[in-house]
Amino acid sequence: MARFKIATPAGASFTVDGGGYDYEMEALAGLDAEIVEVPATEDGFIAGARDADAVYAKGMSFSKKMIDSLERCRGIILGTVGVDYVDVAAATARGIPVTNCPDTFIEEVADHAMTLLLAGQRRVVEQDRMVREGRWREGRPQLLQIPRLMGATLGFIAFGHVARAVAMRARPFGLRMMAYDPFIEELAMPPYGVEPATLEEVLRNSDFVSMHAPATPEAKGMLKEKHFRMMKPTAWFINTGRGPTVDEAAMITALQQGWIAGAALDVLEQEPPRQDNPLLQMNNVILSAHTASASSRFDPARKRRVGQELALVLSGRWPMSCVNPTVLVKSDLRRWQPYSMERGPNS
Given Cys at both, which of 22, 49, 156, 299 links 7, Cβ 3.0 to 4.6 Å? Predict the structure, then answer.
């Protein structure tokens, strides 16, 4: 039996039943650790993971009941940016760090956001459909009604890693940029050519509004009907963040009533959407299947990051990407050692 047990739901995303953990195990070499699959149900997880030294969270929701059942867990490690499927507050109360992968797929998501912006602005999907349907002569008249991209305003809601990467891509196109983010210093924005602004200023002045708010309880349903009413009737709404940050019914009304010109969405409130979702039938909507972060680098990079975080917590060091909102007051912080790139996680 290995010294350290890492429990993970069987049959969940990122791998297949019974294996596929080679990338995660790279950083765990020498630690005498094993990843053990447990049933992917609440009761099954509780029975199988009670004595786990760490949890590799994926593929299911992790409730307070599940977290409270963990008797010696040193960390709950996620292979995603979003942490909304784990009760972080419950973990914090137990003194258990929760980690995510905040910087592993930034470039891919930024590329996708910029792609959606350009596709919406140049009506790429509609133009493609016109050609395929034998409506060749309709393409040019449509684009003759659309303002040029240079000089337009791109507004960001939240200005974290992805938004900053998007700003770097948008700047050479001649876009004016502004951002609303009450959680970062305003001085972080000007180096990217971005002007600090209020939420209302972003909504009223932007030709493109790019949503990047995380799926936190505070951000759920953040954009409501009143916010879409503030936007220009020629504006496009782009979301590569999280679907639940937007009141989808209000957004649909905005599109149907012409409060905004269109939407380009990688995320939705319900995924996959019901086939009767009006967004699926709208010509002024571009959709992708929550694929913004995907690339050939995606799985190896995040799995290796999971392994690195597991190695850190199991060797008594603080993880790189702890997302707990408050100090872990109930844990004995003296057991944690600072992480050093020179020493490495296994030294």
Answer: 49
Known catalytic membership, residue 227: no
CA dihedral 144, 145, 148, 149 (to 10 degrees): -120
The one catalytic residue in 242, 302, 304, 317 is 242
**126 annotated active-site:** no
**CATH number, domain at 153?**
3.40.50.720
User: 177-202: per-residue pLDDT in tens?
Assistant: 999 999 999 999 999 999 999 999 99
Total domains present in the chain: 2
> 296: which 2 tokens?
């050939």
- Alpha-carbon distance 203 to 245, whole Å? 15
Question: Which burial class, exposed, middle or buried, applies to 234 when counting CB atoms under 10 A from its CB (0-12, 13-18, 19+)?
Answer: middle
Residues 132 and 99 in one domain: no
- Does the pLDDT at position 43 exceed 90? yes
Chain center to CA of 335: 31
Separation CA 39–CA 44 (nearest Å): 5
Its domain, for residue 214, covers 106-287
